[in-house]
Amino acid sequence: MTQLVVENLRLEYPAARGGKPYLALSEANLAVESGEFVTIVGPSGCGKSTLLMLIASLLRATNGTVKLNGKEVAAPGPDRALVFQDFALLPWRTVLKNVEIGLELQRVPVARRRDIARKYIEMVGLSAFEMHYPHQLSGGMRQRVGIARALSVDPEVLLMDEPFGALDAQIRQVMGLELLHIWERDRKTILFVTHDIDEAIYLADRIVVMSASPGRVIREIKVELPRPRGLAIRTSPEFNIYRETLWNLLEEQVRASGSWAAAKATGDR
Q1: Alpha helices (runs of H) in 23-93, residue ranges in sequence order
Q2: Chain-centre distance of CA 152, in angstroms?
Q3: Other residues' Cβ atoms within 10 Å of the Cβ of residue 181
Q4: How far apart (Å, rounded) are the C-alpha atoms in residues 219 and 209?
Q5: In which element (H, E) is residue 184 found?
Q6: DSSP string, 3-27
Q7: What share of the chain is helix, strand, coil (3-state, %, to 5)?
Q8: Residue 159 in contact with residue 83, Cβ under 8 Å?
């Protein structure tokens, strides 16, 4: 069943003084099935994060619509939860209190929200740390808190904006595996923005490729690797075919974006 529909979504920022209007997103279209795990890739600055912000109604589109279960959404709500790259935890609140924030805003009674928060803290493997503060946690643990907080409000769609981008490569892979375990248990619809090609393939049912700025959807790739997926699948011939296909698509867009020289200099594929 189609759950989320993005139709002709466009975002143009007004001209700054003496400048020109900036078109960030151009006629983006996307349909997502209930329970589907969709990853979104594209060159830097192509509007991937902007697309998530528009779906979350944290930005207002210039044109176009976002529909959830057939109804247009125009304001933030608990049906969509956003997980950020920078964790966005409140440093003066414990793990438990951070996870409870959304439930507090929904005026869930104290005992009930405590039970719900602890359920998701246990789900992400942090029950022993519920009274710790963010500065006492590793980066991977802080990101788990962010995921638990998002899940605690029981959203229909989980929006994840490069949630593992600040983690080192080893922890990033482990977190990807943990996220898949959570998704397989909970089957939330997930839209996941990433710059990492392997991560995009490993996690997804489907990969959405966006063009260089102004961003629009130019290709969708169905990932037909078996589930459940372990880390070993990243070395399989089938995985490598997806990797090469995706890299060839992105190379053209990176060149078009003008960032090819920088990507080449840093070895970023």
Answers
A1: 48-55
A2: 17
A3: 14
A4: 5
A5: helix 169-186
A6: EEEEEEEEEEEPPPTTS--EEEEEE
A7: 40, 25, 35
A8: yes
What is the rounded CA–CA span in Å between residue 26 and residue 128? 46
Backbone phi, psi, residue 31, to 5°: -130, 135
Place of tokens 């078996």: 226
pTM: 0.88
Side chain identity at residue 35, one-letter code: G
In degrees, rounded to 5, the angle at the alpha carbon of residue 267 between the alpha carbons of residues 266 and 268 is 90
Structure-block tokens of residue 264:
């080449």
Identify residue 200 by its one-letter amino acid code. A
For 217-257, the pLDDT digits (tens) are 999 999 999 999 988 999 999 999 999 999 999 988 888 76
Q: How far apart are CA 91 and CA 158, in angstroms?
A: 23
Alpha carbons 159 and 263: distance in angstroms, whole number: 26
168-190 pLDDT, tens digit per residue, is 888 888 888 889 988 998 899 99
The residues, ordered by sequence, that sit 6+ positions from 71 with a Cβ below 8 Å of its Cβ are none
State the amino acid at position 133 in one-letter form. Y
